[in-house]
Amino acid sequence: MPYPDLSFSEITSAVVRQNLRPDIPRCCPSSLANVMKICWDANPDKRPEMNEAVTMLEAIDTSKGGGMIPPDQQQGCFGCFHSHRGP
C-alpha cells in the first residue's frame, strides 16, 4: 500500500488535485518505469488505451525477472521489493 496513512478519498483527491503518484522503486527497470509514467500522466488524453498499455507491458523483456530481481535473489520473485514488506 503506497499511502497507508491516507484514506481512499484523500488519495483520490490528491491524485486529481496534486498529481500524486507512487514513487517508482530505484530497482524498477526503466522500461517498466516508463510504462508506469505514461499510464499515470496527469492528462488523460496522453494516457494509452488499455490495449496499448498491454502491448507496452508485453514488450518488456521479463527473462530473469526483467531486471527486477537482484542477482543474489534470482530464485525469488521481485526481490527488490522484499525490504519494503512487513513481517
UniProtKB/TrEMBL annotation:
GO terms for molecular function: protein serine/threonine kinase activity. Residues 1-56 form the Serine-threonine/tyrosine-protein kinase catalytic domain. Gene3D superfamilies: Transferase(Phosphotransferase) domain 1. SUPFAM superfamilies: Protein kinase-like (PK-like). InterPro entries: Kinase-like_dom_sf, Ser-Thr/Tyr_kinase_cat_dom, Ser/Thr_Kinases-Pseudokinases. One of its GO terms (cellular component) is plasma membrane. This is Serine-threonine/tyrosine-protein kinase catalytic domain-containing protein. It comes from Zingiber officinale (Ginger).
